[in-house]
Amino acid sequence: MGKVLIIGAGGVATVAAFKVAKNRDVFTDIMIASRTKEKCDAIVKAIGDESIKTAKVDADNIDELTALFDSFRPDIVMNLALPYQDLTIMEACLKSHVNYLDTANYEPRDEAHFEYSWQWAYKKRFEDAGLTAILGCGFDPGVSGIYTAYAAKHHFDEIHYLDIVDCNAGNHHKAFATNFNPEINIREITQKGLYYKDGNWIETEPLSVHQPITYPNIGPRESYLMHHEELESLVKNFPTIKQARFWMTFGQQYLTYLDVIQNIGMSRIDEIVYEAPAADNSGRMEKVKIVPLQFLKAVLPNPQDLGANYEGETSIGCRIRGVKDGKERTYYVYNNCSHQEAYKETGMQGVSYTTGVPAMLGARMFMLGLWRKPGVWNVEDFDPDPFMAELNKQGLPWHEVFDGDLEL
Ligand code: NDP
After folding, report:
1. pLDDT at 141 over 90
2. Radius of gyration for the chain, computed over Cα atoms and rounded to the nearest angstrom
3. Judging by DSSP bridges, how do beta strands 200-204 and 193-197 pair with one another?
4. Going by C-beta distance under 8 Å and a sequence separation of 6 or more, which residues neighbour residue 36?
5. pLDDT tens figures, 75-131
6. I want to staple 144 with a disulfide (CB 3.0 to 4.6 A). Which of 87, 136, 140, 181 is the partner?
7. Residues with Cβ < 8 Å from 43, sequence gap 6 or more?
8. Average of pLDDT values for 234-241?
9. Does the Cβ of 11 fall within 6 Å of ligand 1?
10. DSSP letter string over 181-200?
């Protein structure tokens, strides 16, 4: 039992706050803090629990964070802001002696680059402080790693091939929109692909490798090989893995828009100089610096507003081939999540829901003392069993298929 501080007030934070508020047996005091306090207040209003506190904080600023942590004294901070803030929040956690959880690995603003090295570098400091840091506790990363750990614990002596398959078969009736923060999302999918094979990392041109994969209750969807951060920790934690890949579905229209966005330079993350009306309303023009992708985010639909008209389901799972008792076997474990059901419960669509629920569950595991060990850990470093049991009770039930055709 203890106090939780949620940082961020976007789609994922909203779902996590709804779920935290439903788990009062472990979360005794709740605070939501973000850059825009009004957004935190709106979440409290939507939940209808006036005991939830709110605050304004700039999570890029370690001093502001420590002042907030020292006044609220949370047991754990759930970082549901953006990956840019991971390191400042981890620093503040060390200064104020608070445990940490996030859903996405640190990214420097000026380089779209995904790897855990920056956060793993904090391991000794968290260990020495007796603090737990839980990294990547959304769905993917997050449940994808927990599924793999569960498979390794119960169904395999050795895992050899791992394919994480992520399908969003929903329709939000917009010409183009992203399902979570557009800046972070477009940075991710315009990256080169990367997968692991026989001890090496193999790079592919962005979205150049693809094939249809059949998803339960959905059918075949073209799926694209991408780099995804959990591959890095999973091949390290399960060294018998010979090949690990990540696949995500995209519709043709989405890819056409993405192509245009890239070709006209709107996915650039470097600063450009732009002439804009001066902020003092004098009518004078002045030169300002903008990042094209951040500008694009400002004009794209807000992922939080997609829920009302979102139909269809997501389907995310792990397809695994390996050996048990000397025999080869396959195993597929997955969850399907309905956008409409997610919206009815939290006002947010399925992608925010499938991220916010595991984030809450990670914090719940921590509060219950089940996932608590000093250091910096990925989710598969913890016992998957209590988490898997809670997924079934808290909105993300999972299903298993043994010895089926993995298609991959
Ligand atoms: P949003 O853009 O909707 O929300 C981000 C929130 O963080 C906003 O409320 C924003 O404030 C706040 N914020 C940004 N910068 C700061 C700052 N400097 N100080 C304080 N608050 C700040 O994003 P999502 O909710 O869609 O995504 C949240 C996180 O979840 C991201 O890191 C994303 O990568 C991750 N994610 C993980 C997934 C997984 O499966 N593991 C899947 C999907 C997302 P403001 O409202 O003022 O802009």
Report:
1. yes
2. 21
3. antiparallel
4. 9, 56
5. 999 999 999 999 999 999 999 999 999 999 999 998 888 899 999 999 999 999 999
6. 140
7. 9, 13, 14, 17, 32, 52, 54
8. 98
9. yes
10. -HHHHHHHHTSPEEEEETTE
**CB 36 less than 6 A from any atom of ligand 1:** yes
CB atoms within 10 A of CB 363: 29
Q: Is 145 in the pocket of ligand 1 (CB under 6 A)?
A: no
Q: Rounded to whole angstroms, how far apart are CA atoms 225 and 8?
A: 30
Query: What does the pLDDT average to over 311-317?
Result: 97
CA distance 239 to 109: 32
Task: Flag whether the pTM goes above 0.85.
Answer: yes
CB distance 261 to 186 below 8 Å = yes
Q: How confident is the model at residue 257 (pLDDT cuts 50, 70, 90)?
A: very high
Centroid of ligand 1 to alpha carbon of 172 (angstroms): 20
For ligand 1, whether the C-beta of 303 sits within 6 Å is yes
Sign, CA dihedral 12-168-153-163, equals negative
390: Cβ–Cβ under 8 A, 6 or more apart, which residues?
A: 361, 364, 365
At residue 111, the pLDDT reads: 83
State pLDDT tens for residues 287-302: 999 999 999 999 999 9
Going 35 to 41 to 46 to 51, the CA torsion angle's sign is positive
pLDDT > 90? residue 158: yes
Nearest ligand 1 atom to the CA of 81 is 7
Report the distance separating Cα 239 and Cα 229, nearest Å.
16
CA nearest to 312, candidates 179, 174, 214, 171: 171
- Tell me which residue has its CA closest to atom 10 in ligand 1: 8
